[in-house]
Amino acid sequence: MKKKVVQQKWKKKVFALILVVVLCFGSLLFMQMRYTHVLGLVSLQHQLVSQVQKPKIAFLFIARNRLPLELVWDAFFRGGDNNFSIFVHPRPGFVLNEATTRSSYFLNRQVNDSIQIDWGEASMIEAERILLRHALDDPLNDRFVFLSDSCIPLYNFSYTYDYIMSTPTSFVDSFADTKGGRYNPKMDPVIPVYNWRKGSQWAVLTRKHAKVVVEDDTVFPMFQKFCKKKPLPEFWRDQVIPADTSKIHNCIPDEHYVQTLLAQKDLEKELTRRSVTHTAWDISNSRDRERRGWHPVTYKFSDATPMLIKFIKGLTCTALPLQNHFLESTFIL
């Protein structure tokens, strides 16, 4: 009897020991699983943090072929911290490779479905739409800046980025065009005259407005159909102007399309109605034949003075059209 009691006590002790071992092992296993889970969460968090990026600005260049001021832009983009993307619309077939660009930022940045552009025709705004289609494929692109191959930045990247991103609006120079000659009455009723707008081609669009431009299938066809060139003024033309030009409407699509489209869509309250690109149009008194016509002044090397740059900056502008020889680094912040 006494022996049985001893055996039962021994069994209880063994069972208790086994139970303690199992509990300790289970606790260790649970703690290991929790530790692994926590490490996984930390790793995932680091991955997510590394993947989070600020919204980007898409710089959309409409160019003939080469970008003559690419080295200025190269210096500009070095401070961009990858918060930008670049798209170039050149003539069809032109490729930005090591033989045609000295800046790594522009290598292979051409769109491969570019079209031939004719000034004063709807092909100019179709080029803008092509650029936007490509830029919208990147979900991080949040602002879309139209530029020519003769534009340079007057401020550094961080200042430009903060300025453009500081407002939820698009920067679009837009006003009612009350003068005759541009609007074609045949556009009515698709485009009524009270929605006809005019302004600078060099706009900055939000992603919402960029989508509106790309998805437009009503206003753009009207521009394609009714916007045609008519002869240039007497002081510019080399050919004979027809006797009757009353039925020819020189629409100049790039100065009207985006503005008119956004008016049609009742989006004008979402605009800052001015451009961030400086152009000089006061050329009526110029004696230089090359500076007269339907295009803004092209600044020459002799114009490039600190006073000019200071004056333009005083107008709160961020870009200036120049000839390709104006590359003085002293004028670039």
TrEMBL record:
GO terms for cellular component: membrane. Keywords: Glycoprotein, Glycosyltransferase, Membrane, Transferase. It is found in: Membrane. Pfam families: Branch. One of its GO terms (molecular function) is glycosyltransferase activity. Its main location: membrane. It comes from Medicago truncatula. It is a single-pass type II membrane protein. The keyword DNA damage does not apply. This is Core-2/I-branching enzyme.
